[in-house]
Design brief:
Its EC number is 2.4.1.227. This protein is an alpha/beta fold. Helix content is 45%, strand content 15%. It is globular, with a radius of gyration of 21 Å.
């Protein structure tokens, strides 16, 4: 690529933060290395990507993509809809004139990637998980390059196209890689992913009275779909949410935009084990208790969590264990927070699992094709 400053690049993803945040991390790195490059995001009009991309200050084009590919007639209809949307997007593609299109997964990425293929624009995809999603499996056949977070995913693709880059994380998170975590202050961050996690939300609420009594400060991202149910569960226990918020003891929110700040001011994380969450925890050197979503494809979240727990970098807690009647989450968390030495070991170990340069490596691969 002789003059990257004169180029345009399309990044496309959608559906969940796990697809969107790596794309945003790459956009940040692209803008830093090539300030004059035009970066255009393409995603679903009705997903969280529109809001997240706009807040990050990047140009966004929304497509009226609905639903996820299913089976039977609904799946066939969805495929035809995505195909016709890709044909319709060719007109917009001609205006943008991108030198390369990068897809980060999610069904909303398919139309612009297909439009690129039809128009002769090089296509590159990034797969965050050890077991790829359907959209990336489909598009990998047409992509020039397949970038992977994990080497285990190579078996699902043409290995000659594959490059292991790691999973890009945003600069406010990767900047925490060398943070000193030797002096924990009993701060718990609870995450269920961008869509929330009902089992984690309800278990946390049940443990709240005991956690607050032992002076643990908690930030709880319940997800948009779980926020109201979590509030009602708190009220049923008689918890004074406004008072707890004002005192800094418990902050309940649907979504967190500035994750870097919250990671910086946390000592332990209770979280699902999605690939992007894992990458962020590694980059931020944060000890964690990981509760894999038990119904994930090929149970890949358990594989993600086990990769860390086997290296003393996290604790794997199954959802069955979390929901057991005799399980005391408050006690479990307090035992960890009362053991700074163990937290320090976990922090050092999880740091070894990080790939803080993933965004830069992926940008290099992008520019090779542009």
């Amino acid at each position: 690529m002789n003059n990257p400053q004169s180029k345009s690049i399309i990044l496309t993803s959608g559906g969940t933060g796990g697809h969107i945040f790596p794309a945003l991390a790459v956009a940040e790195e692209l803008k830093k290395s090539n300030p004059d490059i035009r970066i255009v995001f393409v995603g679903g009009l009705y997903g969280p990507e529109a809001n997240l991309v706009s807040k990050a200050g990047f140009e966004f084009i929304g497509l009226p993509v609905k639903g996820v590919l299913g089976r039977g007639l609904s799946g066939v209809k969805a495929l035809f809809a995505l195909f016709f949307q890709s044909l319709a997007f060719k007109k917009e593609l001609k205006k943008i004139n991108p030198s390369v299109i990068a897809g980060f997964g999610g069904y909303a990425s398919i139309p612009s990637l297909l439009a690129g293929v039809f128009s002769g624009v090089p296509v590159i995809i990034h797969e965050q998980n050890s077991v790829p999603g359907l959209s990336n499996r489909l598009m990998s056949r047409l992509a020039k390059r397949v970038c992977l977070s994990l080497p285990q995913a190579k078996v699902y693709f043409n290995e000659k196209k594959c490059v292991v880059t790691g999973n890009p994380v945003r600069s406010d998170i990767s900047g925490l890689f060398h943070i000193d975590r030797s002096n924990p202050q009993r701060r718990l961050l609870v995450l269920g992913g961008s869509q929330g996690a009902r089992a984690i939300n309800l278990a946390l609420v049940k443990a709240l009275p005991d956690l607050i009594a032992t002076e643990v400060k908690i930030v709880h991202q319940a997800g948009a779909s779980g926020l109201e149910e979590t509030k009602q569960a708190c009220l049923k226990l008689g918890l004074p949410l406004s008072e707890l918020e004002e005192s800094g003891k418990y902050h309940l929110t649907a979504f967190i935009d500035n994750m870097g700040s919250y990671y910086e001011n946390s000592d332990l994380v209770l979280s699902r084990a999605g690939a992007t969450s894992i990458a962020e925890l590694c980059a931020a050197a944060l000890p964690s208790v990981l509760v894999p979503f038990p119904f994930a494809t090929h149970d890949h979240q358990t594989a993600n969590a086990k990769a860390l727990s086997d290296n003393n970098a996290a604790i794997l807690l199954t959802q069955k264990e979390l929901e057991a009647n005799d399980f005391d989450l408050a006690k479990f968390v307090c035992v960890l927070l009362n053991n700074p030495a163990r937290l320090a070991v976990m922090s050092d170990s999880v740091r070894l699992c990080a790939k803080p340069d993933a965004a830069r490596i992926l940008v290099d691969e992008l520019l090779k094709l542009a």
